[in-house]
Design a protein that fits this description.
alpha/beta
Amino acid sequence: MTPVNTRRGIGMTSARTRERLLQQLRDEGIHDERVLQALRDVPRHLFIDEALASRAYENTALPIGYGQTISQPYIVARMTEALLAGGRLHRVLEIGTGSGYQAAVLAGLVDEVYTVERLEPLMKQGRKRLRELGYRNVHVKLSAVGIGWPQHAPYDGILVAAAPVELPAALLEQLAPGGFLVAPVGGPAMQELRLVRRTEEGFTHERLELVNFVPLILDN
């Protein structure tokens, strides 16, 4: 899906700058051309503060306010690539909308994206931005209590954009049989990116690499 309204001029960031980022991602091990095309299509500079727009296509995380960040492009690509390992997905749940960037990347790769955010200002900004940019298959919800969006479960894929100390059972239960979940897991000292698959026998866990995410806050 290509945005229909770029608001701030896209000319401020050259195609060459984006291509340089994509080549860097290839060099770091991202090989799925579907994922690379999605990152090429999504205007990352529209998902951050205008003052930081000149850094939009650096391979680094950037602040988006409220103690949160927009993830490093490599991490977005790595998690998306892992999520798509089993093929195209119909329905995906994202935990932690943030600026809406990861949801926008997913929007061009899956049929429906359901994304939840516990911070109301970020949720409102993300929803508005995604609507203005024409992402009609992304559904955004404020999730102040509990976790996930059970009403639309089961999901073929779940992507968690913040790190729980352990994966909540309530979230795993929203994953469809055969589905994949990608999440950072661990505390401040060490987190690992995990790929979880639901099978008929239960759940398999694969460690992908060490990462550093903001913590996932679970409401009681």
